[in-house]
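JOB MANIFEST
job_type = single_chain_structure
chain_count = 1
residues = 253
[input]
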Amino acid sequence: MALKAVHVSDIPALDTVPKSPCFSNGVQLKVTNDDCPVIFHDDFILSQQNGVVFEKRITELSLSEFLSYGPQREVGKDGKVLLRKTKDRKIVQWEVEQDDPLCTLEEAFLNVESSLGFNIELKFDDHIVYDQDYLAHVLKAILKVVFDHAKDRTIIFSTFQPDAASLVKKLQSTYPVFFLTNGGCEIFEDERRNSLEEALKVCLENGLQGIVSEIKGVFRNPGVVTKIKESEISLLTYGSLKYVLSCHMQCFK
């Protein structure tokens, strides 16, 4: 049975994930400039002051600065307005079904139902070339929280960043590491990100347990699925096409 991930960014949302061993919380991590892993999807956080929209990179904020955005835990205290940028680059209000304070990875471990596993996506900016020392520093900060607070939870690590995938595997052997790829649906300067073949190579060279591919990438090159299976590498998919029955039928022709 495949492990399903549900992406969330606050504690109440984390706790609403179905209580089943086939589900895991998909938490996307950044690390603040004072070394605290926080749950947030985007590279930048957007806000507005006196009618002027501004953005700040999450990794350049301290933890206290990060937590000052959005709803606050202290009754009667207002946080900075949260905005977001749509795919067509429009700036809109941050609207969610349940508006709760931003949180850290440690808080998630301490407050979310202990039977729920975490799929921890290690998020890095697609447009930055990171050096090994920086990656190692960030990953060690994340691993410290995981080893201190995960306890018996099911944990898997995943990332689109090939060097981060390699490093997190070298830094620990307790939890499986999956390499994320869009399978060539979008092209990057780093060739390792541009096909399922390259993703397989990353896994084999670094001892990773699996690949998580955009489903369209699998349909672009179904032949590589056999190679992945023969290599005993797990293959999971994401993307809207995986919910279309005809696509599943095509996959097994």
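[summary]
The chain is about 30% helix and 25% strand.
The mean pLDDT is 86.
exit_status = 0
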